[in-house]
Amino acid sequence: MVYSRILFAGNILSKHKASKGVSEKIVDIFSSEVPIRAVSDKSNKIFRFADIFWVCLTHNYDILVADTYSGQALTIARLASLVAKIRGKKIILVLRGGMLPEFYAKNKSLVNSILQRSNQIITPSIYLYNSFNEFGYKVEYFPNFIDTSVFYERKVERKPYSLLWVRAFRNIYNPWLAVECFANVLENYPQATLMMVGPDDGLLDETKKLAKQLGVLDKITFAGPIKNTELPVLYSSCAVYLNTTSYESFGMAVMEAVACGIPVVSTAVGEIPLLWQDDEEILLISDFEAKSMSEKIGELFANPAKCQSIVSNAKLKVSAYGLNQIKVRWLKLFQATK
After folding, report:
1. Peptide bond between residue 40 and the one before it cis (omega within 30 degrees of 0)
2. pLDDT in tens, 154-183
3. What sign for the dihedral angle of Cα 110, 114, 115, 121?
4. 47 contacts 74 by C-beta, under 8 angstroms
C-alpha cells in the first residue's frame, strides 16, 4: 500500500504536559507505516504558531490534517490551512473543540473562511457532526480510538470511596465542582478521598483555596500531570471518576476511564449524553450543582450491584472504539491517490 505524505498540525505537547492528545497518538501509531510528521511541540504559543507556519511552508507533504478548535486554538487551523492552500495541498480539517458550535454562532465569517479551504472535514464527535451538518457543511463522522492494550482494568486494589478527577485546572473543566461535590460526599462518607490529576492552567491555587475554605484540603491529593501510561493503574485503583467539564467533543478521558473499569459521573454536555446512556452506562447530571453530582456518587457507593452493572455495560461500549476497528479508516484516509 502506498500512502501520502502526511503533516499533522496541532498541539503536540506531551513533553510539557505529560499526557498525549489524540493527534499525537495517531502520529505515534502510524509512523512506522505512513510518512507522517506532527507540528508543533513548542510550549510558547508564539513560537508554536511560528513553527507551524514554517513547517507548513517548507515541509514536503501531500495532505495537511489540522486540528480545529475554537478560540485562540483556532489559529492553528487558520494558519496551517492558509499556507497549505497557497501551496496546493489537500486539506483535512478535524473538528475537535466542544465549544465550536457556540464559537461558530458568534464568528461565522471567520470559521467559514477556514472550513471552506478544506477538501474534507471529519470529526470524532457526533455532537459536532450534527451541529456542522446543520450549518450546511458535509462532515464525516470519524470516531476517536482507544488503545485497549494500554487502557484496561489492572489487577490492583480499588480503594473504597475514592474519587478521581483528571483534567487541566482550567475554567471549562470546572475543578471547583469536583471540590464542592467532594465536600458534600464527605458528609455521608467521611472516609472518602479525592485525587485531582492534571496540569495547572491558571486555577490550581484557586482550587486549593476553595478546598481549604471548605475544610477538605487535607483529604485531596493534587497529583499534577501524569503520563498516559500511568493512568490505567490510577483509574483501576479508584472507585468513581468525576467528569465536570462544561464542553465535550468526544470525551477521551471518560472512554479511557471506563475501559479501566471505573464508573463515571459526568455533566451532561456535548458528546457525553449522545455517546453514553444515562443510568445504564454512566450517571449524568443536567446541571452544574455539587449536590446533584454528590447524590449520583452516593447511588454508586450505596448500590454495588448497580455500580457493577454500569461498569459492565460501559465496557461493552468501549469495545466498538478499539484501535483495530478505527485504524483501517485512518489508513484509508492516508492512502495515496496518485
Report:
1. yes
2. 999 999 999 999 999 999 999 999 999 999
3. negative
4. no
Q: How many angstroms separate the Cα of 109 from the Cα of each of 72, 101, 324, 335? A: 16, 13, 38, 32
Cell 478544506 -> residue: 118
Any long-range contacts for 22-31 (C-beta under 8 Å, 24+ apart)? 22/96, 22/124, 22/144, 22/250, 22/252, 23/65, 23/67, 23/94, 25/147, 26/330, 29/147, 29/323, 29/327, 30/6, 30/330, 30/331, 30/334
Q: What is the pTM of this model?
A: 0.84
Question: What is the helix (H) or strand (E) element at residue 100, kind and residue range?
Answer: helix 100-106
Q: Which helix (H) or strand (E) segment is 140 a member of?
A: strand 139-141
CB 93 within 8 A of CB 118: yes
- Please give the biggest Cα pair distance in the chain: 65
Distance, CA of 108 to CA of 94 (rounded, Å): 17
**Is residue 338's pLDDT more than 60?**
no
Q: Which grid coordinates are listed for 14?
A: 506531551
